[in-house]
Fold Pseudaminic acid synthase.
Amino acid sequence: MIQFAKIKIGKEYSPFVIAEMSGNHNQSLERALSIVDAAADCGVQALKLQTYTADTMTIDIDDKEFFIDDRKSLWQGNFLYKLYQEAYTPWEWHKPIFDRCRERGIIGFSTPFDESAVDFLESLEVPCYKIASFEMTDLQLIRKVAATGKPMIISTGMATVAEIDETVRAARQGGCQDLILLTCTSTYPATPTNTNLMKIPHMRELFSCQVGLSDHTMGIGAAIASIALGATVIEKHFTLSRADGGVDSAFSLEPAEMAALVTESERAYQALGQVSYGPSQAEQASLQYRRSLYVVEDIQAGELFTKHNVRAIRPGLGLPTKYLDLVIGRKVKEDVRRGTPVSWEIL
């Protein structure tokens, strides 16, 4: 079990759902606060930001390697520096956003992208940290965050087993005791066929920690399926409306979808239950509607039971149907009326 603020996370508890704001504030603090309110209304446990500036992410150069020319990318045609200028969350917004999270009863935290962001977030007393897939190989950053002693959530998109192992070792050696890994596909949006949820139980066993899903697929199907495989954390990007645009809006959930995710992930968790056979307590009342052996025609004492006067029907108050062959051909001790359950006493 891991605890963020007052919320406990683990296989014994409901899924921890994180709404990722990212750049969906569209450079409006008012919209950012509205996203917090909408996320809280949906029932999520946490809202996450990303803490960086264009200058902490890259340098302002318009050379080829700093240009996104992948035609499949949502951000094709942008230079990295200009993209991050558009997408970043102003640092002075963090406190009012986190304050609104506290007012609405959800956890507010962030993903730092360099060491200066960690120092800044520490000044705001965030309860935990998230490491992005693209930064999980930045071992200096991992150690910096681990040294805070706070819980860490680390996405593992693109990572090899060796890279994950190196990152986990750095985090634990750096002082992190509470660690959650997220399986992730670093494409935007991701496809279900490229999500590979079967990694969840494998990663949990391999690295002896909780595992969740940072999900970039459209809809909520993959996220719900992850619960059945043991995911304890689900992270999804969140916006007020995809039609409003924004750097991440195309693969973000809208409020009705996020609310459905919260509801259905809880149902999926509840449905896991435990290994159990036989009628549950809730099923006891249904036992009477199983089939059993009943007299279906009036029979006089001394007559034989036949396939015409005894049948397997509902309800289930007579002998189990497996005894039909033993009953057929036996004599009746007494007069029996139609609708009487067959019992050993009347044979």
Notes: The chain has a mean pLDDT of 94. The chain has two domains: 12-52+88-272, 281-346. The longest strand covers residues 46-51. The domain at 12-52+88-272 is CATH 3.20.20.70 (TIM Barrel).
